[in-house]
Design brief:
The structure is a single chain. With 272 residues, the protein is an alpha/beta fold. It has helices at 52-72, 130-160, 198-210, 219-228, 232-242; strands at residues 14-16, 19-28, 34-38, 41-47, 89-92, 95-104, 110-114, 117-123, 167-171, 178-181, 186-190. The chain folds into two domains: 6-77, no CATH class; 89-245, Metalloproteases ("zincins"), catalytic domain (Zincin-like), CATH 3.30.2010. The strands form three sheets. The protein has a four-stranded mixed β-sheet, covered by helices on one side. It has a four-stranded mixed β-sheet with strand order 5-6-8-7. A three-stranded mixed β-sheet has the order 9-11-10, covered by helices on one side. Helix 2 (130-160) crosses helix 3 (198-210).
Length: 272
Amino acid sequence: MWPLRQHEFDLSPAIVNGREYGIDAVLTDGRTATASVRDGRIVIRIPRFARRPEAEILFLSLRRRVLKALKSHPERFEKHPLVLKHGSILNILGRDFPVIVETYYGSRCQARVHDGFILVKVPYGLSADYGLITKLVLRSISRSFLPIVHSRVEDLNRLHFNAAINTVSLKNTCSRWGSYSKRTRSISLSIRLLFAPSGILDYVIVHELAHSREHNHSPRFWSHVSGAMPDYKERRRWLSRNGDLLGIDRDAQYQKSNPDRPMLGAGITAPA
């Protein structure tokens, strides 16, 4: 069977609510067809070796579903980038952690989660933008909280699935909340789930563990999810409505309660 080609799909732009959306077809080596909206374009992923009639039906179905969602709920596709700075407060697993950025007489940028706050240290004289601060904070959070998440995966797996899971990882992903690899028997979770209620994190873990039984989203797959978590629909609905806002900086600022730490430009405080 010959592999599919992009030109075999209708890639003509679509107009929704007065805005034009380009359409891209991406052929993958996976087995699942998915669709997403990125930078004003609708990206539809189709398995490269799917049968042509089936591939066309999948493409048209996903295209139709995305256009319907864009028309009825355009706000769900608005991206809210995670930007952290001195004074940002992250609620991680139900506990507030203010971000403190300081300069120091060192040579490397570093971040570490302490008991009750996250300290980012930037070499004196180096200009640190919000992108760098955000990257450092997320990396430190991943290191510190991965053992807790790994333990939760083991608990839920032992209770409901008894699957062979080799590794668990946290990644700064925006397009998906989690993934399961059949080949490596590994689970990857979005680090933003740490900013959600614990029940939401549990739902995504159960969802990925269920893929160890069924590598699709068939009725049998959802029966596995339901068996482990009868109220999964409510949690899934919460994530769909609130997921894009997880981790977004709140109005509360650590600086207000710590006036002795004067600001030095973009999120840098005076050396202690």
